Amino acid sequence: MSSRNWRSRRAPFALALGGVALFLTACSGSSGSPSTGSAAGKDLPKTLVFSPLSLAPPALKGLSEGVKHYAGDKKWEVIVQDPNFDASKQTQQLNEVLSSGRAGAAWVIAVAPKSMGPILKTAQSKGIPILVNGRPDEYGFSGPQPGITFDYIDYAAGGKALGEQLGKCVTEKLGGTGKVLFAASTEGSAGKKEFDTAALDALKAAAPGATVVQTVIAKDRTQSQTDIGAALQGKPDLAAVMAANDEGALGALGAFAAAKKNLTCVTDFGGNDEVLASVKDGKIYASVALQFQADMAQSFDTLVKMQGDPKANGEVLIVPQKVVTAGS
């Protein structure tokens, strides 16, 4: 599973949330009766409701444990819900807990952002700060809203960094020229159009002599390896791969190894543990790694801050990204 699309129901859960694994532990949060904190004229419990897409994917199960651990260290209780990819179930679960008086804040990885309107209005009416994945426009807003924080991945920035890094590799190791395969994300994936455009434009700018001669869709690692292997048969002189997710990068390594061919340049967007180990070993030139540990901390800390004034406009957060190379 790729670490890039965990905030979108539309993406295949190829997201093993690579970066998340760096900090997730099996620790649980604090238990017992929630304590309270002062907030804009009333007390809100120090209880966070965490509603991910589902707890079935190991990555999201691990993320829920990480949230409980981080919040528990700060003396917060965490209520974890499991809508199991069902938008109606998610809104029902959230409505029940928001109406119960138990919730002091909510963090929602929405199954369907368009279904969240009533939940957002309920949270606002009750003065309960809420954080949702995605940009304001995905929820029908033009900017920050009272009591609501938005948190999203900047796909244009990620694509630009991915293309720039492959261009650097082509310049350094291939003399500025070479045939490139683009392992793209599936249609409907979050931010696909802006990501792909930014990546291809950045590669062209960084290495004008590089040519993208084939594109495959990287759904999962096995399929990616099969499709890239097939591409190699028709284009045996492929020398570089630009992968929009971890599955594409790891599948490319497998395909080239199986064909006993050298893969000089490969760059990745996502940055799971295996990818980062391959970067360290020099098999992958660079990974544009999403920093989910930092995002978890900024998300929770923002909700804590919002309890002080739940009626004030929330923030628009961006998931941090970091270019990781063998030397970094």
UniProtKB/TrEMBL annotation:
Where's it found, cell-wise?
Answer: Cell envelope
Sorted alphabetically, which SUPFAM superfamilies does this protein's record hold?
Periplasmic binding protein-like I
Which protein family is named in the record?
Belongs to the bacterial solute-binding protein 2 family.
Pfam families, sorted: Peripla_BP_4
- Secretion signal, residue range per the UniProt entry: 1-26
Q: Which residues form the Periplasmic binding protein domain?
A: 63-306
GO MF term list? carbohydrate binding
Protein name from the UniProt record: Xylitol-binding protein
* Keywords, alphabetical: Signal
Q: Which gene encodes it?
A: xypA
Question: Mind telling me which GO cellular component terms the entry cites?
Answer: cell envelope
Q: Where are the transmembrane segments?
A: none
The residue stretches assigned to a coiled coil in this entry are: none
Superkingdom in the source lineage: Bacteria
